[in-house]
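Format notes (please read before filing issues)

Several people have asked whether sequences and structure tokens are stored in separate files. They are not. Every record keeps both together, in the order shown below: the sequence lines, then the token lines. Line labels are part of the format and must not be stripped during preprocessing.
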Amino acid sequence: MNICVFLSSADLDERYTRPAREFAELIGKGGHTLVWGGSDTGLMKVVADGVRATGGRLVGISVDFLRHFARQDADEMVIAMDLAERKALLLDRADAVVVMVGGLGTLDEATEILELRKHGLLDKPVALLNTAGFYDGLILQLERMEEEGFLPVPLVELVFLADDGADALAFLEGTVGSR
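Then the structure lines:
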């Protein structure tokens, strides 16, 4: 399975890097391919290292203005012209999507994916990995949107909410295998 992971390229605390490394190792041990932003920095590097160390493939989709951060030993590296093209290429190459901890770019990617799913324009399974409660506030907001009628599709149909990588991967493997 090609698993697109949206996540931060920042150097982060162990409470985020340890679970990210564990999830990455599950991806690699499962024989899956990581499709990610291609960066060899921060949490992106941690995940790519974990997938690589456990036998998984790396497909990076970087963007021209960040090409100097691109991982040199990726199995494949594509350079997009802008962020919009990068997102489209990432989703095109993926069988499933996981949103991990991240900043504004990751939040942008997450909301775009949910919007695409809401309109039936993306049928790939999506898991939101809520490491250390990072997305508690976002989940609360999404639940409020659902309760107050802002989501025409039940939240459970848009995204699988996971507290750990094993649950997220089990959901993706079960969903992709049944499609």
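For reference, the curators noted about this record: The CA atoms of residues 40 and 71 lie 5 Å apart. The chain has seven helices and seven strands.
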